[in-house]
């Protein structure tokens, strides 16, 4: 009977997998949470009260069937839990690690009131890690192989989720990416201490074994050439195309001294650090410029990217790491859990402060900043910020990292496709039912449609786009057959 196993939140306290102590984790780029000890995941899963209306699932972008896989886990039926969990999520072991659970599933778990929420993310990760270790993760073997060929631009979570779903239907799937590795921001953006690189590499292998063909080091552009392929060529080569290119244009900051050496973009910085972790050769000049070792580091911004930069700088052996954000702690976009992790690791937050000028002669040596104060909420409900008069102060800085967010690249121009419709923010316009762009047979999903978002939303979009692409191809085939009669 259920009562025996579940509802244990009254007697079993919440316990996340152990976090390694800050001194230990600052010395490497490995994940900071250990795996659940044997028996611990089952015990934690048993705290779920099996809600009739599970708010955890409602607030999961994938609508994961959380109460059922928690129950199976509590009962030790892990292979069934894996089957159920992977039916709605292409990468449960990744979401379990890097979803901001406090804002999604766990933040809406109803036993939170009075008792702490079920540790949903950690259990989700445990189920699929166990499945891989036990050999339960079988490559996709579609019941029929179809002749239809699909081109996907972008090997991030959006493109990869779509690739899996389309392979399930037996389509021939080709994924193009300008990077030399599969994973998008999961491989070169998100640092190893949140998501270890071999977790992403394991999925690359799985997708290859499932028959997905990768064309890496191929930049989609406006003309064919060495290391690049034109968008028009892809259109001619495939029956349908999915654009899942993410957003990569860094927002910039001006002001006096903004052009000094030593002021770098967050993604350039994180990519080099990730490449070094992966064992790549990085040019010495580049790795010296983009390395925090021994330097006073100032990171500008308050989102997840800024949190990843400050924590990377600590691990590289920076002299000091300060995070400058113009609003306060309560109004920052980054996850509270990540701010806490950063503080434990030795990062200093300078709230309510914005850069005014960069100091130095050739190379940056300092940042002049000004104090900010919060004003009245604007039309969007967000409090405005304004500088406090005569409040300038100077921070020493040998490396300044700009983490102010990302915008889409101008795809219609870059690809010579003036008819590819974009919004006023530059994101691709799609029909929200069919996922099709303004070009027939061309679909889009992930950050390039939503603007910078989350891995779990890219997976959701990739799945939905794949469903619509399959439907469109089927309808087209049926129409052709009818015309031939
Ligand atoms: P991407 O992951 O960006 O993948 C797009 C791919 O397209 C890339 O591989 C790129 O090389 C390729 N591409 C682009 N243009 C071309 C072209 N012209 N030709 C060929 N290939 C091209 N989300 C979370 O949920 N949790 C987190 O903890 C988290 N941390 C983050 C940390 C950082 C530093 C950053 C930058 C983002 C983080 N995110 C996080 C957000 C998350 O990574 C993205 O929302 C998600 O990866 C978007 O998926 P996507 O498939 O749309 O695009
Ligand atoms: Fe929670 Fe993300 Fe997993 Fe959904 S996918 S259950 S939001 S961790
Ligand atoms: Fe279980 Fe919490 Fe979900 Fe309710 S909201 S089903 S208690 S995990």
TrEMBL record:
SUPFAM superfamilies noted in UniProt: alpha-helical ferredoxin, Nucleotide-binding domain
Superkingdom of this protein's organism: Bacteria
Alphabetical list of Pfam families matching this protein: Fer4_20, Pyr_redox_2
Keyword 4Fe-4S part of the UniProt annotation: yes
Cofactor(s) it depends on: [4Fe-4S] cluster
Every Dihydroprymidine dehydrogenase domain range: 26-135
Domain annotation FAD/NAD(P)-binding: ranges: 150-462
Keywords of this entry: 4Fe-4S, Iron, Iron-sulfur, Metal-binding, NADP, Oxidoreductase
UniProt GO MF annotations: 4 iron, 4 sulfur cluster binding; metal ion binding; oxidoreductase activity
Coiled coil start-end: none
Keyword Metal-binding among UniProt keywords: yes
Protein name as annotated: Glutamate synthase [NADPH] small chain
Protein encoded by which gene: gltD
């Amino acid at each position: 009977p259920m009562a025996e196993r579940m509802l244990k939140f009254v007697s079993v306290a919440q316990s996340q997998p152990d976090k390694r102590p800050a001194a230990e984790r600052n010395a490497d780029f490995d994940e900071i949470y250990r795996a659940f000890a044997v028996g611990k995941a089952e015990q934690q899963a048993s705290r779920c009260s099996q809600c009739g209306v599970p708010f955890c699932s409602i607030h999961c972008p994938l609508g994961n069937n959380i109460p059922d896989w928690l129950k199976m886990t509590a009962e030790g039926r892990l292979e069934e839990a894996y089957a159920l969990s992977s039916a709605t999520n292409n990468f449960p072991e990744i979401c379990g690690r890097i979803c901001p659970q406090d804002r999604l599933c766990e933040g809406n778990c109803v036993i939170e009131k009075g008792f702490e929420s079920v540790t949903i993310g950690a259990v989700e990760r445990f189920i699929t890690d166990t499945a891989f270790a036990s050999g339960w993760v079988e490559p996709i073997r579609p019941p029929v192989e179809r002749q239809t060929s699909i081109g996907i631009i972008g090997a991030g979570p959006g493109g990869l989720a779509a690739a899996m779903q389309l392979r399930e239907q037996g389509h021939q799937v080709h994924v193009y990416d300008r990077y030399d590795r599969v994973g998008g921001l999961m491989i070169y953006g998100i640092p190893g201490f949140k998501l270890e690189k071999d977790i992403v590499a394991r999925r690359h292998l799985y997708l290859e074994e499932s028959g997905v063909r990768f064309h890496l080091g191929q930049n989609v552009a406006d003309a064919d050439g060495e290391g690049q392929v034109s968008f028009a060529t892809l259109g001619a080569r495939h029956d349908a195309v999915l654009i899942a290119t993410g957003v990569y244009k860094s927002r910039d900051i001006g002001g006096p001294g903004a052009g000094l050496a030593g002021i770098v973009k967050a993604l350039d910085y994180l990519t080099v650090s990730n490449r070094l972790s992966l064992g790549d050769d990085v040019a010495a000049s580049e790795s010296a410029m983009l390395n925090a070792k021994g330097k006073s580091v100032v990171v500008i911004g308050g989102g997840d990217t800024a949190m990843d930069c400050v924590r990377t700088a600590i691990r590289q052996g920076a002299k000091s790491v300060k995070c400058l954000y113009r609003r306060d702690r309560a109004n920052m976009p980054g996850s509270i859990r990540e701010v806490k992790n950063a503080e434990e690791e030795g990062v200093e937050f300078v709230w309510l402060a914005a850069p005014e000028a960069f100091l130095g002669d050739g190379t940056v040596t300092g940042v002049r900043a000004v104090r900010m104060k919060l004003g009245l909420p604007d039309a969007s409900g967000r409090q405005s910020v304004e500088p406090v008069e005569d409040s300038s102060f100077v921070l020493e800085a040998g490396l300044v990292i700009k983490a102010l967010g990302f915008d889409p690249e101008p795809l219609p121009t870059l690809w010579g496709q003036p008819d590819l419709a974009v919004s006023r923010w530059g994101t691709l316009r799609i029909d929200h039912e069919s996922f099709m762009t303004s070009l027939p047979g061309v679909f889009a999903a992930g950050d390039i449609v939503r603007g910078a978002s989350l891995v779990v939303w890219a997976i959701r979009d990739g799945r939905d786009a794949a469903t619509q692409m399959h439907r469109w191809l089927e309808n087209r085939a049926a129409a052709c057959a009818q015309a031939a009669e």
